[in-house]
Amino acid sequence: MPSKEFQGQAFLNQSRKKNTDGRRKCFGLIGYYVVGNLAHVVAVTRISLELMLPPKHRVYTVMEAKWIKIPIEHRCDVDAKTKKNMAIMTEFQIDGNHFYCETLDLSRTFPSTHPAHEPCEEFVWNTFVTKPFADIGMSRWCVVLLQGVAMGRVVPTDDDKAPLGIHLALICRRSSINPGTRYFSRGLNEKSSPGNECEMEQIVFKQADDSVCFSTAVWRRGTVPIHWKSELVSQIADAAIIISDRPYEAIDVYYKRLADRYQNQPITVLNLLRVKSVHADEGNLTHHYRESLRAVKKMFNVKVDMVEFDWHHFLKLHGIEETTEALWDLTDPITNNAGLTTGVLHMSNGRFTDMTVQSKQNGILRVNCADSLDRTNLVCFFNSLHYLRNQCYAIDAASLAPKSPTASLEEIKKEMDANLLVHLTDMYIMVGDVCATLYTNTVAMHTQHMRDMTAHVTTAPSNAAILVNRRIQNQFKDKTRQKQYDIMLGINLKKYFTFSDVKYVCSNAYMFKSVPSYLDKPHRRPEDEIISNSNLCMVAPEDFDYIEIHIFLPNYFRLLEVSMVIRHGQDDTTSPSRMDVFCGTHLDDCVMAYQDLILPRCEDGTKLTFTLPPQISGLKQRNTLYDFEELTTSTHMRVVRVVCYGIAPGSCMTLGQIQVYGTDGRKALIDDVQLGVDRVTRIVANIQDEQTATSPSGDQEKNSTSLPVNNVTPIDNNYFAHVTGGDVLFSSIEDQIATTQDQRDVYVLELHRITDLNSLSFNDVLRLEMIRLKCGLSTSQRDTILIESGYKVAHYDPNNYVFWRDPKIENTIRGKLKSWNCNICRTSIKLRNIGCRYCRLSFCKNCIHNEKLDVIEYMWLFNPSTVCLDCAVRINEQRDLICEIQRLSQDRHVNNETVNEKLFDKNLMPNLDRIFHSPNHQETLLSEFPHAGILSSVATAQTSAPIESILLQEPQHYQDGINFWSSPVGIESVHIIVVLPCYAKINKITLLVDALGYNDQDKPTIRVSLGERLPLLTFMGEWQLPDGTISAHDRIDWDVSDLLTGYDMCRLVQFEVKIPKETKNNNFIHLGRFYIYGQINAAPASSPLNQKQLIQYERVINKKKKSSRVTIKTESKFYRQTSTLDLIIGQGVRVVSGFKILVSHGEQGSLSQVKDLRVGFLTENDRKELISQQVIGTYIIPKVANNTSLEFEFEKNYDNVKIIRFEFLSNYGADMIEVSHGRVSLFFTQPN
User: DSSP character for 1183?
Assistant: First the structure.
């Protein structure tokens, strides 16, 4: 055993490329549950063998269970409510209240013939938490957890027929269908199951060498099975019983459940509630109980009757002996008539070979009081005495029991074997305490009468103390304990947890392009270094300007996040400082997610997680004006392209693991968020007058800069609703578009004209956006044009031009630019000089616009400003442009989904749940969608099924043109690259002809190439289809096993499909299905580095830094009202190179972490007046672990800067209720 344990540990260490965190000894697994960034393994760590059932079935009571927390790869956002409720779940009362057996089905009465791993779900308590195991076919790894008590004791005897003694066993199984606490789980629930429902089974057996004689008695206990509840109306009085308006609704479901379990045995209800004259509420409940039995008899053929016995009242009047005598007089005829189940289990070599049933119990007694607790437990105990006497006689152990079947209480005390009586009493005390603990969180009351049966048990605890404690528990703990029940059983989870469907989607991902390596002749798969979690980082060759990573995901997803693990040695500048990210369905239709994304410097092994923008993820993000990228989200993403660059010259780039997260493409539910400016919402708070200074702290200077409530509250969409008169402004552009065939050219010409003319302005980028929408270009088409033209997309985003300007600084700037001549008419303005608050220049009264206007670019709204005539034209043009953008965006939203996208959903999405089966033989189908996929897009007719349809199974119903792919008319050739789900040796390719069939004019020739990665594909041959006409739905096979000898590691198959060139040019390509068959091979294993490679690797890792970053001493002022931080630089500091932020999380975890951080600088004159403000840029702070230090370098050094201003614009929780700002400092870089 130790050697196997050692081997297992070594295997884990090797397979995960790193050491495991340790070992935990456990006796069984209860389940597994993931919340946020933690997986919880529920393990049994201490057990007690309380019962042994024949022949050798060990029944263990769980004495201790541990919730072992395991950090998982994805750091999922978890809110405070989820954290709190997960902590509550881990306190669920498992210890001492649950039991299991790994070899015998305990969920059914003894002796069950069902396998242990096929239990009756009614009594299983870990079904929900074992679901992750069941989903992968490993449910047997977990124990079947039952709630209640399972106890067994052995009574020695002199009987030669029972050399091993007489065995007494008691099992109390608690139903899981209506779980909960006293005031949350009474009567029937929506599943028609009563609260606190238990099945009791008392077993007596004796075992000889080759047989076991046994006897069992079974009964039920639970609350009254109608719809009712209790409410505490007083701190002292009993809870009020409230009967539902529809008390008998679906009650037949419960009795049918009993009838099915007990094969339609008669049911007798023993009702222990007080009579109406003694307790009105309980009497009324009894009345409805009787009526419910009448009602259920009319619903279906069930044998059910009721007998009543007011235990409390009878006991009060007559004492315990007369009360038990009266009870037996009532119940003995019922139980004797029902009888017992008795039989013999025959064994050979310690195993059962056969079973002889001598008698079967034919009647079920169901006992209830109000709570199914104290009265019920006492009655069950006293009835069990007569059960036990009859069971002893049934197995020929009469010497242990009273002779008379009607023995009195005193006779039982004297005549029953003392050990047997002690064991029975102990068992029922335990059952009472466990049932009471699970229901009320206290031990049982009124147990002294049981304890009086023998002198060998302790005195009962005080009933009064228990009563007080029970009331406290009910009032203050029941709600929390009910949460535990619900969460453990998977009930109402949305009420307790904020769920995220985000998952790691790179498992089994494939890198379809080779990645250059610095190491000589590397024998390592790029997936092992870039996708898998490896101790080694990927090292690129020296002076490679950029490295491209191309990932093909194992299925279609809605992508939400991308992560990079920063890897480097002593010199952190070997890791890339910039990254581009593209995502798409195919390689050539990828949408830009990030361009020139800044990667901060940080410690080796730091994981940076970036939320993908709305055009990829569909998640809302901060926008001042409108959604520049639109929410054109697709759930069909499968290709991810990452470009890393930005390292020091003469260096080798080091790369760590790249991870992608998303949700299932089939099940993703995307919020119906309007596109474009339709998402623009109103500014929540009015910007205060710029002359009024506000300070959150008393020690702040009175003349300090006034800041707005600028937590990225976007501008109200209604703000532009009144704008009219845009037709004249846009008419020239519409005329230009109308006279141009290629509308793309219009946008490109205007782009180059504006960009080459001068530096971009707010009006320029708005005008370009309006032209794009007029031309019908999508945001991804626009981004492609900008990237191909060598422009940064962010420079053309109007949102980046709109930010709040400090009015005091603007006032100073206007003072510096003040002149004595009007800047329009050049007249003298010495007597009256009016400054324009937009362009900051001076004008005469006649050249100032007659109305004050809101300055949109400065975010000066609801407080109109004085502007000149020229600026008034610019501002009005901005408003007109934004209004037109809004209208055009709304039109695009209506027609957003293309025909091909609809056909994709109709034809392909139902197949995404298919499971890939991989038997290792020559005829494995390798090309079945969605496990196989298409790498690059292919020209497709508007009404055609998508190109992926060529990988589907044969359709059940053939319809021309709808189930098959076809190209547009006039297309003569296409290239189709199929990505296989695994490495394989291809043996056969089959073409299933579509519904059109082929003739000599449209019959294709097919050239086939294959390989492991691009760009290296090897041409393997040309597939000539048979001569003559080919009928629809024919199957054509091509055996390539001999042709492809030696090509055992194929992942890519390229089909070049051509049709004959026709003069009429009206033919098109059409295909049915391609089936690729072959033998699956294991992925090539990466070999460890040899000595030469290790030296090369260490040379890069141990390279010393060429420069260091020195922290600058600053004074800080934080404006809590506006989430803005000013760092004031001291005397003697001339250069600022960047900033460092120590990221922190608040109560909401990473949800509260800052996401968007705008950085700018302020300068001052000799009189220490602020004279200018400039935005350096807006930085995306990646999601990282708490207390992670990130260093961002500016694109250039800044000299003579007085104040660096940081505006905390947003967090990862999509709100600004809590933004954890962290600790920010400045640095300058100096050479070493």
Answer: B
**Residue ranges in the chain modelled with pLDDT below 50:** 1-4, 11-12, 14-19, 667-729, 739-740, 894-904, 906-907, 909-910, 912-921, 958-961, 1063
Q: Read out DSSP for 944-965? A: SPPGGGGGSPPPSS--TTTSSE
The residue with tokens 């070992």 is 23
Coil, strand or helix at 547: strand
Could you give the count of Cα atoms lying within 13 Å of 812 in the half-sphere of its Cβ?
Answer: 16
CA distance linking residue 597 with residue 578, whole number of Å: 5
Alpha-carbon span 576 to 426, nearest angstrom: 70
Angle at 257 between CA 251 and CA 262, to 5 degrees: 130
Retrieve residue 656's tokens: 């760590």
Q: What is the pLDDT of residue 203?
A: 97
How many whole angstroms separate alpha carbon 1140 and alpha carbon 497? 35
The predicted pLDDT at position 500 comes to: 66
Distances (CA, A) of 1178 to 146, 579, 791, 859: 57, 16, 18, 17
How far apart CA 102 and CA 901 sit, in angstroms, is: 51
180/439 Cα distance (integer angstroms): 7
**Which of helix, strand or coil describes residue 291?**
helix
Q: What is the CA radius of gyration of the chain?
A: 39
Preceding amide of 1004 cis, omega within 30: no
Per-residue burial over 1130-1169, b = 16 or more CB atoms within 10 Å of its CB, e = otherwise: eeebeebbbbbbebebbebbbbbbbbbbbbbbbbbeeeee
CA distance 273 to 279: 9
- How many angstroms separate the CA atoms of 388 and 453, rounded? 14
Q: How far apart are the C-alpha atoms of 170 and 151, rounded to whole Å? A: 5
Backbone angles phi, psi at 856, to 5 degrees: -65, -45
pLDDT of 672 reads 27
Rounded Cα–Cα distance for residues 782 and 581 (Å): 16
pTM over 0.85: no
DSSP secondary structure of 148-209: EEEEEEEE----TT-TT-EEEEEEEEEPSSS---TTTS-SB-TTS-BTT-EEEEEEEEEE-S
Contacts of 1004 (CB under 8 A, 6+ apart): 998, 1025, 1057, 1058, 1059, 1069, 1071
Token readout for 734 is 């519409």
CA 383 to chain centre: 51
Among positive and negative, which fits the CA dihedral 694, 700, 703, 709?
negative
DSSP letter (8 states) at residue 1082: P
Q: What does the alpha-carbon distance between residue 242 and residue 529 come to, in Å, rounded to a whole number?
A: 65
**What's residue 738's pLDDT?**
53
b/e 242-281 (16+ beta carbons within 10 angstroms → b): bbeeebbeebbebbbbbbebbeebbbbbbbbbbeeeebeb
Q: What is the pLDDT of residue 360?
A: 96
The tokens describing 950, both together, are 């060529």
Q: Give 1004-1066 as a DSSP string.
A: -EEEEEEESSBT--EEEEEEEPPSS-B-TT-EEEEE-TTTTTT---EEEEEEEEE----SS--
Query: Which pLDDT score, from 0 to 100, does residue 22 have?
Result: 64
Other CB atoms closer than 10 Å to residue 381's CB: what's the count? 21
Would you state the pLDDT for residue 714? 45
Angstrom distance (rounded) from CA 848 to CA 836: 8
Number of residues that make up the chain: 1232
* pLDDT computed for residue 736 by the predictor: 53
Distance CA 729, CA 726 (A): 5
Residues 343, 1164: Cα–Cα separation, whole Å: 100
- Coil, strand or helix: which one is 1130? coil
- Residue 951 CA to residue 1038 CA, distance in Å, equals 17
